[in-house]
Specification:
The complex is a heterodimer of chains A (412) and B (87).
Chain A: E1 5-10, H1 13-24, E2 36-39, E3 49-52, H2 54-57, H3 67-73, E4 78-80, H4 84-98, E5 105-109, E6 112-116, H5 124-139, E7 143-148, H6 151-158, E8 166-168, H7 174-177, H8 191-199, H9 205-209, H10 213-231, E9 248-259, H11 262-283, E10 285-296, E11 301-312, H12 315-329, E12 335-347, H13 361-377
Chain B: E1 3-7, E2 9-13, E3 21-28, E4 34-48, E5 55-64, E6 67-76, E7 81-86
Antiparallel strand pairs in B: 1-7, 2-3, 3-4, 4-5, 5-6, 6-7
The chains are: A alpha+beta (412), B mainly beta (87).
Chain lengths: 412, 87
């Protein structure tokens, strides 16, 4: 018997969750019925649209555009700030609710869940209908459910018509339901690939699907084969219960002001390093490659990276490497955005040492002690004195401190 | 009933099993005096999980300024606060 996979996607997630929380707190306005957005703080320069209501969509407001330009399109727009703990709570409640229906549930992101419903006695449509109505009734927000023979088709199906709908997309339906769609609607086809495909006259998913496999391989190589298979509805990864293996640990921040001095830049790098060190030690992983990227006041970004002799999870080591990279690359212009990434991860239990670098046991004990203190007494219980009165946070990055927040990934 | 969602001071009875039972509460009246309302009867109670936030909603009956009224109070489990939701 073939598989049946559900993809459950919360309709305008952040906004719905804000709306249901406001209703619970006695508000008489449903944010979903008026032009409204969840947006970052303009003062802190995080002023972009994170989620929009369906009435806001009618004003052609796009997710990711600046609040300034959204307000120009609709002056009466209601803007609410994001509350990530709330979203975490709502998402957890949804997963807990779905646990009653299947043991195989993959949390794909904060608002998307895959659920394996193969080999169940009950007809899948009946279950889907029950999930849709009960989530609405009990949790107060609406979802789209896509049902297909694999994760890819389920995901495509849940995106068809919104909100509060159930769609199916089985192999025999892809000709009429998926193939007429524009090619950029396909998973893994981004703006660059879209341009490449459009340049050769491929505008719909159907056109891509009907290309010769050898031809697409000679042209776009392995990623080409992947999207060709996706266009034909071929995708066989199981619904993972455990999370994907972590390949890199990275954090970034956009600052409320432009950084113009070295000292300030170093502090920001140290703040991010603290976060990355903390996270990689928590994962029990060490990384070989430290890379940093900065975006200047003209929104131009550039990056540098360095491979270490010995993999590290030490805050200091990450910081010193980042600092050196920064000195090498910085053109002395004002900077608005910093990011650091630690990759080529290996287990921190066994890794190759080097003759050229002694292993700093003292430092790793210090890191561990600080982690324990922070875990027990809170993240701000211990901090470096250089951050005092600096206006820069001692630990930078991430949306919900102290909790793991499922982010989107390109791996299904 | 009008939605108020006003935080209130309350005396409640926490039992071994089952939800806490509100007994009487106090709120600021319009003339700034404190008004104590005794809950005579709980008509029904239910758990609400909007957006994953658990609250218990009680529909109650009691005498407010000499008039027998029906009102709803809410208990927010995460913050341990009580609200007069509707009256």
């Amino acid at each position: 018997m073939s598989r049946i996979v559900f993809h459950i996607d919360v309709n305008s997630a952040y906004l719905s969750w804000e709306a249901s929380s406001n209703l619970q707190m006695g508000s008489n306005i449903d944010l979903r019925d008026i032009p409204s957005i969840v947006g970052g703080d303009k003062e802190k320069r995080h002023g972009i649209v994170l989620a929009k209501s369906i009435p806001a969509k009618k004003y052609n407001i796009q997710t990711g555009e600046s609040i300034y330009s959204a307000l120009k399109k609709c002056p009466s727009l209601v803007i609410v700030p994001p509350h990530y703990e709330r979203y975490m709570k709502a998402s957890n409640a949804m997963v807990e609710f779905l646990n009653a229906y299947s043991p195989k549930i993959q949390r794909y992101s904060i608002d998307e869940v895959f659920m394996d419903y193969s080999h169940m006695d009950r007809p899948f449509m009946e279950t889907a209908e029950e999930i849709r109505t009960n989530i609405k009734k009990e949790l107060g927000f609406t979802v789209n459910i896509g049902i297909g023979p694999n994760k890819l088709l389920a995901k495509v199906a849940s995106d068809f018509e919104k909100p509060d709908r159930i769609h199916t997309l089985f192999k025999d339906e892809i000709y009429e339901k998926m193939w007429p769609l524009p090619v950029e609607e396909l998973f893994m086809v981004g703006s660059r690939t879209k341009k490449k495909l459009n340049d050769r006259g491929i505008f719909t998913i159907g056109q891509l699907a009907n290309l010769d496999k050898g031809y697409i391989y000679s042209w776009l190589k392995k990623p080409g084969i992947l999207i060709w298979e996706y266009a034909n509805g071929i995708e066989e990864t199981p619904v993972r219960i455990d999370s994907c293996p972590v390949k890199s640990v990275g954090n970034s921040t956009t600052l409320p002001f432009d950084v113009e001095t070295k000292e300030e830049a170093y502090k920001v790098l140290l703040g991010i390093s603290e976060m990355i060190g903390l996270r990689s030690r928590d994962l029990k992983m060490c990384g070989y490659v430290v890379s940093i990227s900065i975006k200047n006041y003209l929104f131009f970004s550039y990056s540098h990276q360095k491979k270490l002799n010995v993999p590290t999870d030490s805050t200091n080591k990450i910081y010193y490497t980042a600092k050196k990279l920064f000195d090498d690359m910085w053109q002395k212009e004002p900077i608005r955005h910093f990011s650091i990434n630690l990759s080529e991860l290996v287990s921190s239990e066994f890794f190759q040492l080097s003759f050229l670098e002694p292993l700093d046991k003292k430092n790793s004990t210090l890191d561990k002690t600080i982690d324990k203190l922070r875990l027990k007494f809170g993240q701000n219980s211990i901090q470096r004195s250089c951050f005092l009165y600096s206006g820069i946070d001692p630990i930078i990055g991430g949306v919900v401190a102290e909790e793991s927040y499922p982010m989107m990934s390109s791996i299904l | 009933m009008k939605v108020l969602m006003k935080p209130i001071e309350i005396i409640a009875w926490f039992k071994e099993e089952s939800f806490p039972v509100p007994l009487r509460f106090r709120l600021d009246a319009e003339d700034k005096s404190k008004l104590v309302i005794k809950i005579d009867k709980i008509l029904f109670q239910e758990e609400e999980k909007f957006g994953g936030n658990k609250m218990i909603v009680y529909r109650c009956e009691g005498i407010v300024q000499n008039i027998n009224k029906i009102f709803e109070i809410k208990y927010d489990i995460a913050t341990c606060r009580w609200f007069l939701f509707k009256i």
